[in-house]
Structures are given as structure tokens and as C-alpha cells.
Specification:
By secondary structure, the protein is mainly alpha-helical. Helices cover about 55% and strands about 0% of the residues. Among the domains are: about 15-45, no CATH class; about 60-90.
Amino acid sequence: MSRTANVFARVEPELKEDSESILSQLGIPMSNAIGLFLRQVVIHRGLPFEVKLPDRTPIALDSLSDDMFNAEIEKGYTDMKEGKVRPVSDVLD
């Protein structure tokens, strides 16, 4: 067996439990999953996934003037009329 080194990380308890539950269903111990992640970091020479800010940030209602608020409502109404909609179940997910 090859030598190993310890890695200590602090994560939120709920994140750890949720992750362990999923990994358990996949039959992958947490230490193996961390090893897989670190191997991918080496292969990609960086994070193995894209890290970026969201395309848009939510608009704070109290930051809008009445005209700006009405313009946002109008944009939403126009999108709805043009069929640019998503089912509420998708939005809630």
C-alpha cells in the first residue's frame, strides 16, 4: 500500500452528512472522494469545474424607483406574453 498524508478540513455538519449519504449510496468512502477531487485538481491544473459569479444578481426591491419597478414589471409581462416562461416547479427546485 502506498503512503498517505492526512488532510484536515472544516465543513458544515449538514454538508458533511449530505455528502456522506450520497457517497455511501455510490459506495465511495469520503476519503476516496477527496482523493478523486485532488487528482482532478492535478490533472486540470486547477479546479475541475467552473467557478464564476452568477450571470445576474437579484434586484433589491427597495433600491428601485417607481419608474424602475414599473419597467421591471413590464419586462416580466413582455417575457410572459412571448412565452419566455418556466414552470414554477423548475423555479422552486
